[in-house]
Design brief:
The structure holds 2 protein chains of 2 kinds.
Chain A lengths: L11 E4 L18 E4 L3 H5 L29 H10 L6 E8 L4 E6 L5 E5 L5 E7 L2 E8 L7 E5 L2 E6 L2 E5 L13 E4 L14 E2 L5 E5 L14 E5 L6 E6 L7 E3 L6 E5 L11 E6 L5 E2 L5 E2 L3 E2 L17 E5 L3 E6 L13 E5 L12 E6 L8 E6 L3 E2 L3 E2 L3 E6 L5 E5 L4 E7 L3
Parallel strand pairs in A: 15-19
Antiparallel strand pairs in A: 1-2, 3-31, 4-5, 5-6, 6-7, 8-9, 9-10, 10-11, 12-13, 13-14, 14-15, 16-17, 17-18, 18-22, 20-21, 23-24, 24-25, 25-26, 27-28, 29-30, 30-31
Chain B lengths: L1 H14 L9 H14 L18 H13 L7 H5 L4 H12 L12 H13 L2 H5 L17 H12 L10 H7 L3 H12 L3
Helix pairs in contact in B: 2-5, 3-5, 6-10, 8-9, 8-10
Chain lengths: ~425, ~190
């Protein structure tokens, strides 16, 4: 298929060598910038080897991505999580399904199948409800980080780093989905910030994030953006620029605008910069990366004369290292009326903060204009001690009855959170 | 009545979460299959086969899960891993983690080790594998591993035959390593004490 976007061979990526200190201003600006030549094929197949480590200070050394239990949480561990998680009055959490290893984005089939993507394991799952008993089937194996999913016109769409694959008539063929058909592949193949998420708009186009293959650097022109892709034709447009690593978003039911979560750069400090909730008001908006973070923090190296006022500020700063991923507008009727059109965000939690934060579900209360947003904790209790997880929420989907389901890739489980008046 | 009592006792052990299955007969039997290649006591005597003794519990578990899912490919390991349950995975992780890790022999090429030490710093190995290279959680123990196996593993990562966990960190690191670096760092780690 032909795409409207061509990879640039002009862009030059440069990554700062940060000095051994954790404060922004004290960073040694005299050190030269590392340079990467993105005009080579190699850059696109093998990104810089320091994309998540390498910019850390001496005090930050040793902070590395934690890894959960490979076989997920046991029944006893899940029971403990259910007991530990705190919710507002009237809400209740239960385990919807377990054994959904590395569970990421969820999507509903028309006939009630819940499809679930996964991270490094390469699996896609289908969960069927057999009279209340959940059957978890692995329907696809061996894909490259199939984190993002969508379901449309009877077809399951899976995005696996550099391939958007369509599986027709999926619910009738759970046992033999076949190889599917690649409908869009103008995407770099590297793993670094290459895992993706899909949000479907009213016209049936997909919003898809493209992360840069490094922590901080001037991105080549084909990444650090949100694209809008038509799965029917493979046509695509660049919808927003200046975006770092986004792995979640939803279309506002009130306005049709796309809102998305964004993970900020690493290795400035434990408390800077903040991760963000953004709203795209018009095509081509720039959200600041790598020049400006959290709407008001020029990058110590990469601001390069830019002012934060040049860029679209976030709707809300969510906090540093909280790792906001999947999000949904609450459009159901089960929760109390004041939740209507609030945004629920699954925070995956920190990996390189000395004391983890996030690892919870936040509720954002905000009007359609994005002004005066405020947030409060909706569900928390997955973090234990300074650097321990019981689980890590990463996506949210509404169920027909107005309850929500939450995916947890650490515990390998899906939870259900429901509300009933006392 | 001795038999009856014995029966009750086994049931009690199975129901107690604290009694980890490392010393359980069933897991020993399963692990016997591993010993054929990975060696008695988890210390490999076979070329290109890694020692498992003292590897972190989660690392063993992840590799078994990767083999089972097919995201790590190996003709010998995949058919074996496909047959094991989640419970086996947990038990085998605990079993090998509890074994005494291999101790490195005398280093006959300290100059090469010196070079390897520089590579390890430059490639930030200790950031994940820890300063003692004993590994932690999902990250492998490297200290005392078979030298030619470390070379093989790095080449597998370099050629994208193996991806690994941690967001493909090893594939990204190894790709940029030269053969000289791989030789040196493998030697350094194999003899690291």
């Amino acid at each position: 298929m032909k795409s409207m976007i061509h990879r640039s061979v002009l862009a030059l990526a440069a990554v700062a060598l940060l000095a051994g200190t954790s404060t922004v201003n004290a960073q040694d600006k005299s050190k030269p910038l590392k340079k990467y030549e993105s005009g080579t094929k190699e850059f696109w197949t093998h990104p810089p080897d320091d994309w998540f480590l390498g910019d850390e200070t001496e005090a930050q050394k040793g902070l590395a991505p934690p890894s959960g239990p490979p076989t997920g949480a046991s029944d006893a561990e899940l029971a403990n999580i259910v007991k530990k998680v705190k919710l507002p009055a009237g809400f209740k959490m239960e385990v919807y399904a377990s054994g959904v290893l590395a569970a990421r984005q969820m999507a509903w089939g028309d006939k009630g199948t819940l499809f679930v993507g996964s991270f490094g394991l390469g699996n896609v799952y289908a969960i069927k409800d057999n009279n209340g008993k959940k059957e978890v089937k692995t329907i696809l194996k061996g894909l490259n980080m199939p984190t993002g999913l969508a379901f449309k016109d009877g077809a399951l769409y899976v995005i696996a780093v550099d391939k958007l694959i369509r599986y027709d008539n999926a619910e009738a063929n759970l046992d033999k989905l076949g190889d599917g058909k690649v409908v869009y592949d103008d995407m770099p193949s590297y793993a670094a910030h290459g895992w993706k998420y899909i949000a479907v708009d009213k016209e049936g186009w997909f919003y898809i994030p493209f992360g840069p293959p490094f922590n901080i650097g001037v991105p080549p022109t084909s990444v650090s953006q949100i694209r809008r892709v038509d799965p029917k034709t493979g046509n695509a447009e660049i919808y927003a620029l200046g975006v770092r690593n986004s792995v979640g978003g939803d279309v506002d039911p009130r306005t049709g605008k796309y809102w998305f979560t964004e993970n900020a750069r690493d290795w400035v400090s434990d408390d800077l910069p903040s991760d963000k909730l953004n709203m795209i008001s018009k095509l081509g908006e720039h959200f600041g990366y790598p020049y400006c973070h959290q709407g008001d923090l020029p990058d110590p190296k990469f601001a390069m004369g830019h002012k934060c006022s040049e860029f679209t500020p976030p709707v809300l700063n969510l906090g540093a290292h909280v790792a906001p991923l999947g999000m949904k507008f609450y459009t159901g009727d089960q929760f109390p009326a004041e939740y209507k059109n609030n945004i629920l965000i699954a925070e995956h939690g920190s990996w390189n903060r000395h004391k983890y934060q996030g690892g919870r579900i936040m509720r954002v209360i905000v009007g359609p204009d994005g002004k005066n947003a405020k947030q409060e904790v909706f569900a928390s209790g997955w973090i234990e001690g300074d650097q321990g997880y019981l689980g890590r929420p990463d996506d949210i989907i509404l169920a027909k009855d107005g309850s929500i389901l939450v995916a947890d890739d650490w515990a390998g489980a899906i939870y259900r959170i429901s509300y009933s008046k006392k | 009545m001795r038999i009856v009592r014995f029966g009750l006792l086994s049931a009690a052990i199975l129901l107690t979460p604290a009694s980890h299955a490392a010393d359980n007969a069933a897991i020993k039997e399963k692990a016997a299959v591993c010993a054929g290649c990975h060696g008695e006591n988890g210390i490999s005597q076979t070329e290109n086969i890694p020692s498992l003794a003292g590897q972190p519990d989660q690392f063993i578990q992840w590799q078994l899960v990767f083999f089972r899912a097919g995201s790590r490919k190996n003709e010998q390991m995949q058919p074996i891993a496909e047959q094991i349950t989640n419970e086996d995975v947990r038990n085998l992780g605990a079993y090998f983690a509890a074994m005494a890790p291999p101790t490195a022999a005398e280093d006959k090429d300290p100059d090469l080790s010196k070079k390897g030490a520089q590579v390890a710093v430059g490639r930030r190995c200790a950031s994940c594998h820890t300063d003692s290279f004993a590994g932690t959680k999902a990250v492998a123990r490297l200290a005392g591993q078979r030298e030619e196996y470390l070379v093989k593993a790095l080449h597998d990562y370099k050629s994208s035959q193996r991806v690994g966990g941690g967001g493909a960190a090893m594939a990204d690191v190894a790709y940029h390593m030269s053969d000289e670096e791989i030789t040196a760092v493998s030697h350094y780690l194999a003899y690291f004490k």
